[in-house]
Design a protein that fits this description.
48% helix; seven-stranded mixed sheet; Rossmann fold; alpha/beta
């Protein structure tokens, strides 16, 4: 059909009017063009479709009502298609040009994303939207062989196989972002080691949540830490049982400003105790805990008390005033070389302090007393470990005494575990500081190994053991596989991107073992309801005898004669054999020479 000039102008005018009306209604021009997304394309489609239908209706009314043809239907369809393509391409072109012109390749890493499901796609969208853009998407990594050779979001999907490193080199990949769903595979495979060997930086994306916001979550993508790569099976805790023990109770925590004590505080606070009594002799860290409490749990009554657990009168005043029902005893001197040089303080703080608290717990009717011990108490080779073993002996002997004579309801529970990741003075913060200074990283011995556990999971197991204990048990935790400290140091160097940093061996320190034990050789264990917690069968001591011996040891500590004090410790704990220490001469004199 021929369309004359006036009719064509009328048709164009009607189409433009409808387009303007519906473009305004659907806000197709409200968004910034350089930030266009798939939703903008949908808005354009909807506006043009409604405009097309409206124009078609006007044309039909003209045809059948006024015998007037507005526009040929074929022309109308073609105009709809042309306008949709033009508007969409315009947005895509502007967005592409803006991204290309504003991308600072000097500050942008060629990046693969490990994970192709919804989380991985969302990460890709987030990093493309983020400004400034740190990551330039070059591809995805998948474990599913069905995805071999596939393409998504305009980039290739590569399999996590033997050719992955080759693909990384071909694409000059400098960074890998790991989807949350793939974080566990990163721990339990050699992928991280392979990537680090290629100087590829590994990043972890935040968990995918219902309120995921692309740009905001892109900023939360963080570089992987050594803690993320120490593979451990997740620990499942009976939180309901723990909560039933702690809710509405008065809970006292000693060493509350330390790594373990402060984490116990955080986990106990969740269970809505009636009162948290926090005791520590370190003023500034305790003040920090006080500020954290006010910020997160302002509704809790939580007195923060600066006090020394060896001050018996002060401790008695605290027990008398607050009448705690639950005690978590985490206060202790724990650094092995320091305690080798300060024997008197090890006894006075660790042994005397524990004895004072345990006796007061009985006197004031505490329901449960949970003591934090260490794997260094097993076949101790140093003063610190032996002091904690003496604490275990006293607490366990006291528990059996009151169970037999029914003199108090207190249940004494001891928990024993190894090194805690990130705790004050632990090896990982030390290595980080040495890396920041440019090295070298100091390792005592190339073959030294240690068990590791994160602070939160250690404290969760402490709470679980505390809720299941009946009194007198020593609970030991499944620490997983031991970690070679040299391997840990090398991996941290690769993570830092500083391959120039060297490792130096300094020799074993006084009292230090190559490996720690969780059970003595003559001990065995009994299972509990939790597969990560076991009960140690240990030698029993008579309370009267051990109490007298420990009092003598405490009195001897005030002579500050280290040889004499350590000699009494060895009498109390016959398996205590000093390693790499001047006190080894006492073992030679008593016939406990190293075989």
């Amino acid at each position: 059909m021929d369309v004359r000039g006036p009719e064509l102008l009328m048709a164009v005018g009607v189409i433009l009017i409808f387009n303007l009306v519906y473009f305004r209604a659907f806000k197709t021009y409200s968004n910034v063009l350089r930030l266009s997304s798939f939703m903008d394309v949908l808005h354009i489609s909807a506006a043009l479709a409604v405009s097309f239908i409206s124009t078609l209706l006007v044309d039909m009314i003209g045809r059948y009502g006024a015998q007037f043809v507005l526009v040929d239907n074929g022309v109308l369809v073609i105009s709809f298609i042309v306008m949709f393509v033009f508007m969409t391409l315009m947005r895509m072109t502007i967005k592409t040009l803006y991204d290309a012109l504003n991308e600072d390749r000097a500050q942008t890493y060629n990046t693969f994303i490990y994970g192709t499901q919804q989380a991985g796609v969302n990460i890709a969208k987030a990093i493309r939207s983020a400004r400034p853009n740190r990551f330039h998407l070059k591809g995805f990594i998948a474990d599913d062989t069905a995805l071999r050779g596939k393409v998504t979001m305009g980039v290739n999907i590569y399999l996590n196989d033997d050719r992955l490193i080759e693909r990384i080199r071909e694409n000059n990949v400098e960074a890998i972002i790991v989807s949350p769903s793939k974080a566990d595979r990163l721990k339990h495979t050699d992928l991280a080691d392979r990537l680090l060997a290629e100087n590829v930086t590994i990043y972890l994306a935040p968990e995918l949540t219902d309120d995921w916001q692309g740009v905001q979550n892109a900023r939360q993508i963080r570089q992987v830490q050594i803690e993320d790569l120490l593979g451990r099976e997740p620990i499942h805790i009976n939180m309901q049982k723990i909560g039933s023990h702690l809710e509405g109770k008065r809970v006292l925590i000693t060493g509350a400003a330390g790594s373990i004590g402060s984490e116990i505080m955080r986990q106990v606070a969740v269970f809505n105790p009636y009162q948290l009594i926090l005791v520590d002799q370190a003023e500034t860290p305790l003040h920090d805990i006080r500020l954290e409490l006010h910020a997160k749990w302002s509704y809790l009554e939580a007195p923060t008390i600066v006090a020394d657990i060896t001050n018996q009168q002060r401790m008695e005043e605290i027990f008398k005033e607050y009448k705690p029902q639950y005690v978590f005893h985490a206060a202790a001197y724990k650094h092995v070389p320091m305690m080798e040089d300060n024997v008197s303080e090890a006894i006075q703080n660790n042994v005397k302090g524990t004895k004072i608290l345990a006796d007061l717990a009985v006197k004031y009717g505490v329901e449960r007393f949970v003591m934090i011990s260490t794997d260094k108490a097993v076949n101790p080779s140093n003063v610190m470990g032996c002091s904690k073993r003496i604490c275990e002996i006293y607490v366990q002997a006291l528990a059996r005494k009151i169970q037999k004579d029914g003199s108090a309801p207190t249940q004494f529970i001891t928990t024993r575990f190894g090194n805690v990741l990130g705790s004050n003075g632990s090896v990982i913060p030390l290595f980080r500081q040495q890396i920041e200074r440019g090295g070298p990283i100091t390792v005592t011995h190339p073959d030294i190994i240690r068990y590791f556990m994160t602070i939160p999971e250690a404290c969760q197991l402490v709470l679980e053991a505390g809720s299941m204990g009946k009194g007198g048990e020593i609970f030991i935790f499944d620490m997983g596989q031991p970690v070679k400290i040299l391997d840990l140091a090398k991996k941290m160097i690769r993570l830092s991107g500083r391959p120039d940093i060297k490792v130096e061996f300094t020799g074993l320190r006084h009292g230090e073992k190559l490996y720690e034990e969780l059970l003595a050789t003559k001990e065995n264990t009994k299972p509990t309801s939790h597969d990560k917690i076991m009960i140690a069968n240990v030698r029993e001591y008579d309370f009267g005898d051990i109490s007298e011996d420990i009092n003598g040891l405490i009195n001897a500590s005030y002579t500050f004669d280290s040889m004499r004090i350590v000699g009494r410790m060895k009498d109390l704990v016959p398996e205590f054999k000093s390693l790499n220490s001047p006190y080894g001469i006492l073992d030679q004199q008593s016939g406990k020479e190293e075989e």
